[in-house]
Amino acid sequence: MTAHRQPSTVHRGAPSSSARSALIIGITGQDGSYLAEHLLAGGYTVHGLVRRASMFNRSRIDHLRAAPSSQPAAHSSKPEAQGSRLTLHYGDLNDRTSLRRLLKTIAPSEVYLLAGQSHVGLSFEIPEVTCEENAMATLGLLEALRDLENPVRFYHASSSEIFGLPADSPQNEATPFNPVNPYGCAKAFATQLCRVYRSAYGMFVCSGISYNHESPRRGENFVTRKITLGAARIKAGRQAVFALGNLDARRDWGYAPEYVAAMARMLQARQPGDYVLATGKTCSVRDFATAAFAELGLELKFKGKGAGETGVRTDTGAVVITIDPRFHRPADAANLTGDASLAKKALGWAPKVTGTDVARLMARVDREAIAGLKPETCFKHRDRRVRRD
Ligand code: G4F
C-alpha cells in the first residue's frame, strides 16, 4: 500500500522538540486547541492564527494563554503573550499577503491547516465559501510555503468525506475519491493538490484523512454534541425535546485528542505521506444517542419509522427526540469506516476511544457543565430559521 509519498526526495530530519515551532491555522477550534496543548506539552513554541470577529471565540484556548485578557495587537503582528510559548496573531487565510509576511516573520518549522468551513450539511447552503476556505485557501497556502527560503513541514486536514459513497469498505489511503457534497469536493481537491505539491516540488506535505473525531469541545451544530448537550439539558430539566435528522447514518467516531497526536506524528516522521485516521468501528446516530442518554441514567427507546420516528424515555414515556426534515441533507455520505493500519504501522498510532465511549464521555462532561450553568445560558436563543445545523 502506498502512502502517496515522494520516495526520491530526501527530507532533513525534524528539528529537536525544543527547536520546533508550529503555526496552527484554526487554533480556536476543537482540533486546534487540542493540538496547541499537545505541542506545548511537547516543548514546541506555538503560534496561532486568529480571525478577527466582533465576538471573541477563544474559550477553547483561554486556559493556555499567559495573559487571557490581552488581545493580539490590532495593527501589528507583535506577540501577544510575551514570555509564554504560545503567541496569537491576527490573520486570515484569504489575506494572502499578510499570511506570507507572518510566515516569513515567525519562520515556523511546522504549519497545521485546521481552519475552514467544516460543516458538511451547511456546505450545501454556502458552497462557494466552503470551496474558497477549504480548497482555494489550501492552494494559496501551499504556494506561500513553496516560496519560503527554509522548508516547512505542512499538515492538511483532509476528511473521510472525500470518499462519500466509497467503492471499498473500510476505506484506506488508496480508496478512490467519490465525494457527495460540496465540502467533500473541496477536501478532495485540496488533498489531491497536496499530493501534487509533495511529488512535484518535493515538499513535506501530509494529509490526515480524518474520520469523525469528537470531544466536549465539539461545536454544538455537529450531531454528537447536539445529542450530548440535549441529553444533559433534558436530564437537568432545562429542556424537553430536541430534533435530529438522519438517525440511520453511521459514522466512525473517535476522540479528538487522540487524532491531534497523529497529526503531530505525521510531521515528525522521516517522510511525508497521507494517512487515514479512524477507529475502524462505526455506530449509528441512534446508537450514539442511546449511549449518551444511558450515561445520564435515562433509558431511551426509539419508536415509529421515518419522519415519524421518536426517541422516548422509558421511565416517563416522554418524547425527547423527534425527526425534523430540515436536518436531512440533500445527499449524505454512506457508512464510512476507515482502515488506519498504515498510521499504526508507520506512526505507531492506534486510537483507543470509539463511538459509544465517546458519547458517554461527552455526556458526562456536558452534564457537569450544565449543572454549573445559569438557566438562561442553557436556554440561549436559537435562530429557528437556520436549516441543517
Ligand atoms: O456531526 P455531523 O454534522 O458530521 P459530518 O457531517 O460527518 O462531518 C464531520 O466529520 C467529517 C469527517 O471527519 C469532517 F470532515 C467534517 O468537517 C465534520 O467534522 O453529522 C454526522 C451524521 C451525518 O450523517 C448527519 O446527516 O449525523 C447525521 N445527523 C443526523 N441528525 C445530523 C443530525 N447531523 C447534524 N449536524 N445535525 C443533526 O441534527
Q: How is the main sheet built?
A: 7 strands, parallel
Order of helices and strands: EHEEHEHEHEEHEEEHEEHEEEHHH
CATH architecture of the largest domain: 3-Layer(aba) Sandwich
Assign an overall shape: globular
Name the average pLDDT.
89
Any idea what the radius of gyration is?
21 Å
Word description of this protein:
The chain is α/β, with parallel strands linked by helices and 389 residues long. It has two domains: 17-215 and 252-281, 3-Layer(aba) Sandwich (Rossmann fold), CATH 3.40.50; 223-250 and 284-334 and 354-372, Alpha-Beta Complex (UDP-galactose 4-epimerase, domain 1). The protein is 33% helix and 16% strand. The chain has ten helices and 15 strands. The strands form four sheets. A seven-stranded parallel sheet has the order 3-2-1-4-5-6-11, sandwiched between helices. It is globular, with a radius of gyration of 21 Å. It binds ligand G4F.
Keywords:
single chain; Rossmann fold; 2 domains; 4-stranded mixed sheet; globular; 7-stranded parallel sheet; binds ligand G4F; 389 residues; UDP-galactose 4-epimerase, domain 1
